[in-house]
Write a structure and sequence with these properties.
The chain is of the alpha/beta class. Helix content is 33%, strand content 29%. It has eight helices and ten strands. The chain is elongated, with a radius of gyration of 24 Å.
Length: 285
């Protein structure tokens, strides 16, 4: 995985860190202090300036990856469901991170933020990750902004945050995103959509024009009488597309990674091609 920012790590890994240590690549100098290892003194500079300077090197440490999965009731929609798709993507990204000595933590977010897997490192921990993902079920309403605002209470170390959601929060998402950006996190939004949401016409082929429907909100249980006709369907498609466009535009303006996936699309090409195209995945040749 490719990060736009360099973060401070906690354990030795494969990523360049903001910390300085016993790496191989030179980073900078600082003035010698009593107790410093004399093996790191630059004696050539001492010969010229008659002052002691310590050579600093870049150190390679782990990167913190947070997988934030929306498990509200709206994620149960579609075939396969959006939640199933989110689990598959999270498993793939988690495996990539663990295989490269990075740290992986998993949270669910619906009405509240719930830690599901504490920060874990090492490829041997992949079964723990899949077990945590398999145990997830959909429940509750979407409170995405509230969940995002609480994340720094659990994740004290800034890193990469991948948010897997349909982003159908009536209270919006902007404030939560901006708070995490202000705390130094690097964000990627993976927008999950079911084909039925984009174009319900294909699933209403046997519905007579002007038919009356009683529509129920999947999360609140609220019902509303709706007359289904060509004009209403056209308005719906326009609003759905506007919602997707606004989310993508917001992410672009805020330097947040954005990728969209329909739930009936295979996950593997999405990971290897689409996430590579947007710069999140780096493929080694």
């Amino acid at each position: 995985m490719r990060s736009k920012h360099v973060f401070r790590g906690k354990f030795r890994g494969e990523r360049r860190s903001l910390n300085r240590g016993a790496g191989m690549e030179f980073a900078d100098y600082r003035v010698y202090e009593p107790g410093d290892d004399l093996r790191h003194v630059d004696w050539n500079i001492y010969a010229r300036l008659d002052r002691l300077f310590i050579k600093l090197f870049h150190t390679d440490e782990d990167l913190s990856l947070v997988l934030l999965i929306d498990n509200s009731r709206s994620m149960e929609f579609g075939s396969p469901t959006k939640l199933t798709c989110a689990k598959q993507i999270a498993a793939a990204l988690g495996y990539i991170a663990l295989a490269h000595a990075d740290s992986v933590a998993v949270y669910t977010c619906a009405e509240r933020l719930s830690p599901t897997l504490p920060p874990t490192t090492g490829k041997s921990q992949f079964p723990r990750l899949t077990k945590a993902l398999n145990a997830m079920t959909a429940s509750g309403q979407t409170r995405l902004t509230e969940c995002l605002k609480r994340l720094p209470m659990y994740q004290r170390r800034a890193g990469m945050v991948v948010i897997l959601s349909d982003f159908l929060d009536p209270h919006g998402y902007a404030d939560g995103f901006k708070l995490l950006l202000g705390r130094g996190f690097s964000l990627t939004a993976i927008h999950l959509i079911s084909p039925e949401e984009m174009d319900p016409q294909t699933h209403l082929e046997n519905t007579p024009t002007g038919a009356d429907w009683l529509v129920e909100d999947a999360e609140t249980g609220e019902t509303k009488a709706v007359t289904i006709n060509a004009e209403i369907l056209a308005q719906y498609r326009d609003q759905q597309q506007a919602f997707c466009n606004n989310l993508q535009r917001f992410c672009t303006d805020q330097s947040i990674g954005y990728a969209q996936l329909k739930s009936d699309t295979p996950v593997e090409p999405f990971i290897l091609q689409e996430l590579h195209r947007v710069g999140f995945i780096q493929r080694n040749r």
